[in-house]
Write a structure and sequence with these properties.
The chain has 637 residues and is of the alpha/beta class. 41% of the residues lie in helices and 19% in strands. It binds 5'-O-[(L-methionyl)-sulphamoyl]adenosine.
């Protein structure tokens, strides 16, 4: 492990208040910063706000205040949120900071002087939401794929950064450094962008249209494009150009972003750095998107989840744990309040909370409230110690691969091992026999030691809980507890006084009526996702293309239709509950998806062999069909 670590989050736009997506990135950065600090690394953690550009100017105009007043207000909301989520950033940068503006100006002048910025004209489709131009082929039905809004067509003379000049260098760099952009799916996505010729980047906006930005030093009629300004925060935030802070931390810099801003970070930023004459950042770590109850979060749906609502209702550490445990880094995840409560009850109230309270209360009862002396371990004790050593190792490996959910799963193996050890050893039974006192002490010592290991391992994720457990173990100076201190098992001092505390995670009862407003919006019509299955489980389901040959109503049923379908190899009868949504005459000739290997069942006396797939929403059923003609009988995957 490098002895120095630098992590950044995106600097967030101040046109909206912080939500669960911003909280996720910032909490992941915090978990990483805490982990590296606890491993003895010199660490710097940067976050902040992105305050220039069309989007912000528009939001300020809507609010009827100046952009400066507006950005001051929302930036302050972000700044105030982070300590509430126990986020330990070392610095908070704003792109309106004087120092940042000065450095961006100097960089523009340098890149201009060396001939990498030129004046030209441009026309194209501009999405204000993304603050970027789109190529026509990138649009979906003429709309921005992210915002589903039609972009504006803009034609204007502007300054351009010669990004194309650095394309070959960048492709080579990404190929030579496999973990430059990670996980791999995003590295591949960046390489896919680069398969097409790169266009030069338009880096100015005429002041006739936008004044809220950093003026170009070589032409006062223009302001700087917001991305060119914003990306530079990662170096101004650590004192570029001439501080020791910058010199030490830049070579190990790691950016953390979601997939929405891969292009600016994976393409624009490395080419800008090359032009500035700086080494590229060390890693770009890209995660997926949080949806809410399967829908994209949006103000118009009204399902925006606010981190403080969850923190206030369920506690901060439960929220932090859930975010890191439920998202596989790199993939999308869907938030549901019910799923959140289930996770907290099973992993925190049951597994972790129970282990802590059982071990502490047994030690109070059977060992006079002090850490007992350790003595020679038996094979079963050795097994617990070996589990702890393996978990420490596996947790470290997965953490450094950004597989945080796996790290937590490993830690939970030790929690389960502790709970199992109690059941097997039955300390309450030994306590009845004075001759078994020594054995009882060994067992409780081991359990207390397991708690110490667990407390340290969970601290980056749940700092409050880690601290509370250590205090219950009678450890005063919790700062000394770190990864090095759990490498050896005999770390507790016998005789230390234990300090039982309140229940760490009381069980929560989930009630739909009291779900936070955001999740109430959707949870009534969209059911929560079912428990995970493996790929092999999924492979057991044989989905096929079938053509409906005939359809007729089933007598005495107001739901069922009897269908004759062609499977390519055979004809079958399927009874489907779709008669409220489809008239029999609409169906013949339609190609649909069926579950071909479902065991036959009788419905209203008719044998149905297979099932038709349909979307079940908004009080109706919509049979799955195809936008191109597939072959009848073909597999659907
Ligand atoms: N201002 C730019 C970033 C400039 S960095 C030099 C910007 N700001 S943003 O406010 O839109 O923030 C985008 C980032 O917020 C994402 O990359 C991600 O970190 C976080 N998220 C916003 N919505 C999210 C989800 N729904 N899910 C997960 N993270 C998301 O882009």
């Amino acid at each position: 492990m490098d002895k120095i670590f630098y992590i950044t989050t995106p600097i967030y736009y101040v046109n909206a208040s912080p939500h669960i997506g911003h909280a996720y990135t910032t909490i992941v950065a915090d978990v990483m910063a805490r982990y590296y600090r606890m491993n003895g690394c010199q660490t710097f953690f940067l976050t902040g706000t992105d305050e220039h550009g069309d989007k912000i100017a528009e939001a300020a105009a809507k609010a009827g205040i100046t952009p400066k007043e507006y950005t001051d207000q929302i930036s302050a909301q972000f700044r105030a949120l982070w300590p509430e989520l126990s986020v330990t950033n070392d610095y908070f940068i704003r792109t309106t900071d004087e120092n940042h503006v000065k450095t961006v100006t100097a960089i523009l002048q340098k890149v201009y002087d060396q001939g990498d910025i030129y004046f030209g004209s441009y026309e194209g489709y501009y999405c204000v939401g993304c603050e970027r131009f789109y190529m026509e082929k990138e649009l979906v039905d003429g709309k921005c794929p992210d915002h589903q809004t039609a972009p504006e067509f803009r034609k204007e003379s502007n300054y351009f950064f010669k990004m194309s000049k650095y394309q070959d260098w960048l492709v080579q760099y990404i190929q030579d450094n496999p973990d430059f952009i990670r996980p791999e799916r995003y590295r591949n996505e960046a390489l896919a962008f680069l398969r097409e010729p790169l266009e030069d980047l338009c880096i100015s906006r005429p002041k006739t249209r936008l004044t809220w930005g950093i003026s170009l030093p070589f032409d006062d009629n223009y302001v700087t494009y917001v991305w060119f300004d914003a990306l530079i925060n990662y170096i101004t935030g650590i004192g570029y150009p001439d501080t020791d802070l910058f010199r030490s931390f830049w070579p190990v810099s790691q950016h953390l972003i979601a997939k929405d801003i891969l292009k600016p970070h994976g393409i624009y930023w490395p080419t800008m750095l090359k032009a500035i004459g700086l080494e590229p950042y060390h890693h770009l770590n890209v995660h997926g998107y949080w949806n809410v109850e399967q829908s994209k979060m949006s103000k118009s749906i009204g399902n925006v989840v606010k981190p403080l609502d969850l923190k206030d209702k369920y506690g901060l550490d439960s929220f932090r744990y859930f975010l890191l445990r439920d998202m596989v880094f790199g993939l999308d995840s869907s938030f549901s309040e019910e799923g959140f409560v289930q996770r907290v009850n099973s992993d925190l109230a049951n597994d972790l909370g129970n282990l802590v309270s059982r071990v502490i209360s047994m030690s109070m009862k059977f060992c006079g409230g002090r850490v007992p002396p350790p003595s020679a371990p038996e094979a079963i004790d050795q097994a617990l110690m070996e589990t702890a050593a393996r978990v420490i190792h596996e947790a470290r490996v997965s953490f450094e691969e950004l597989a945080f959910h796996k790290t937590l799963m490993s830690i939970w193996e030790l929690i389960s091992a502790g709970n199992k050890y109690i059941v097997e050893q039955e300390p309450w039974g030994l306590a009845k026999d004075p001759a078994k006192n020594e054995r009882l002490s060994v067992i409780l010592y081991n359990l207390l030691e397991a708690l110490r290991t667990i407390a340290v391992l969970i601290t980056p994720f749940m700092p409050g809980t880690g601290e509370k457990i250590l205090r219950q173990l009678g450890i005063e100076n919790t700062d000394n507890q770190n990864y090095a201190s759990i490498e050896k098992w005999w770390g507790l001092t016998s005789g230390s006084v234990l300090k039982p505390g309140e229940t760490l995670f009381p069980r929560i009862e989930f009630k739909k009526e009291t779900a936070t407003a955001a999740t109430q919006k959707t949870q009534n019509d969209i059911p929560p996702v079912k428990p995970e299955i493996t790929y092999d489980d999924f492979e057991k389901v044989d989905l096929r293309v079938a053509m409906i040959l005939k359809a007729e109503a089933v007598p005495k049923s107001n739901k069922l239709l009897k269908l004759l379908i062609d499977m390519g190899t055979e004809e079958r009868t399927i009874v489907a509950g779709i008669s409220k949504a489809y008239k029999p005459e609409e169906l013949p000739g339609k190609k649909v998806v069926i579950v071909a290997n479902l065991a036959p069942a009788k419905l209203m006396g008719i044998e149905s062999h297979g099932m038709i797939l349909a979307a079940d929403s908004a009080d109706t059923l919509t049979v799955l069909s195809f936008d191109r003609e597939p072959e009848t009988g073909g597999r659907v995957r």
